[in-house]
Amino acid sequence: MKREDLNRLFIVILFLIIAYLSFIILKSFLISLFIGAIIAYMIHPLHSRLMRITRSERFSAIILSLAAITIIVVVSALIIPEIITEGGKFYQSSDEILLNKFEELKRCSSDSEDLKCKIIAYILENVGEKTIEGIGITIMESTSDFIKNTVIAFFTNLPNLVLQLIVILFSTSYFLHKGSGIVERTLKLIPIKKSQKSRITKRIDDVMKGVIFGNIIIAVIEGVIGGLIFLFLGINMPFIWGLLIMFFALIPPLCSAIIWAPVAIILFILGEYTKAMLLAVSCLAIMGYLDNILRPQIISKRVRLSSIWVLVGVFGGLNTFGFVGIFIGPLIIALFVILLTLVGEEWTEEGGDRGETRLKNNLQKG
What we know:
The structure is a single chain. By secondary structure, the protein is mostly helical. Helices cover 88% and strands 0% of the residues. The chain folds into 2 domains: 32-177, no CATH class; 196-342. It has helices at residues 3-26, 30-54, 57-106, 115-127, 129-156, 158-189, 194-232, 238-248, 257-269, 273-303, 307-321, 325-365. Helix 2 (30-54) crosses helix 3, helix 2 (30-54) crosses helix 6 (158-189) and helix 7 runs antiparallel to helix 8 (238-248). The two termini are 30 Å apart.
């Protein structure tokens, strides 16, 4: 082996080792880095406009990064204390609520003219008071434990959350300032035609805009509708619940159900059967349509992919990559389609004649 070949081999092996070690170091922050890149991509048009005013690319990036993180922190500061307070109240009064509710149920009889009482009396007679009481206690304990564990987990992970927010802040600023240069240098390393690079970057841009636009539109619609439903039913803190629904609507397959489903269960336990049913049915119908039908349709129009492939890309991406999979999944599917097209064009338009020539030469040599 020549010295030059040995030198190249050593560099490649060293690069792979360092790349692997870098991955291990960055593994805990990959999602935060990706979120920072997504935020930078979303606010890049604002960055370009602000740069005309400040005349400084770095200063504009810092201002917008701080603004984005400030919005996240302020919204979190408004929501989290309210949720913890309400959850604490429910946790402390859960035993009393359960006992009062069972005493109320026991007073129901089959002779009552109230249809609800007749149904409850029938269930108590056929299932048994102890069984119903055991089921109620299990549900209440599970709900209370969930609230308690969630609060404990939040405060336990608070230092890590702060660290992740710092990484998001700096990565957003970095990608706003250096993102274009990174893309250009990466494209230079790819050994394909300039026209093909343009088509691939255009496809990536379309996919990112489609996924971001589609998810934000659906999240806002769900948040507004969810808040209005909570307001109409007279449930406390409709604005807070609407914001939470808006946030979790960005994270399929959990979506907004992680908010309205527990609330419906708690309402049912508290004896608010009509409110519980109205909340569950309205949210299940409206949010289900928005999440599973309208979201893929909005994204597919921008991405130029069938709705089924968008839906599979989102859920497959989530299953493989976690939260960031809602972006990576459709992106990989779209890139597969465009690369398949490029490969087909190479073989049919340019590669066909060369392949035929090579085949003839090989046959002649043989």
